[in-house]
Amino acid sequence: MPRAVVSFARVHGPLLLLRGLRHTFLLHLTTLWDFAVVDSRSILHAMRILDAYALAMGLQPGAEGYRQVVHVATQDTG
User: Fold this and answer.
1) What pTM did the predictor assign?
2) Rounded to whole angstroms, what are the CA distances from 29 to 26, 54, 78?
């Protein structure tokens, strides 16, 4: 099962992030840990994969998970 969790994060990570499901995925992994299905290393590995995807996609953590970063050019009124 630990390999399945990491594989799922690799395959479906971008979709999870775009739909704002990072926190939900972490809660699911925590439930699997509570029932001794996965170990904490697998959870950390899966979450690092999601965070690497988020960084590559230009997403940054916000109050409710990751959000798109918008760069706004400022005009010098000098």
Assistant:
1) 0.76
2) 5, 18, 52
Q: Are 13 and 59 in contact (CB under 8 A)?
A: no
> Residue 29 class from Cβ within 10 Å (0-12 exposed, 13-18 middle, 19+ buried)?
buried
Helix 2-18 to helix 22-34 angle (10° resolution) is 160
Residue-wise pLDDT for 6-44, tens only, equals: 999 999 999 998 888 888 999 999 999 999 999 999 999
The alpha carbons of the chain give a radius of gyration, in whole angstroms, of 16
Distance separating alpha carbons of residues 18 and 13, to the nearest angstrom: 9
8-state DSSP, 74: P
Distance, in Å, from the CA atom of 33 to the CA atom of 50, rounded to the nearest integer, reads 18
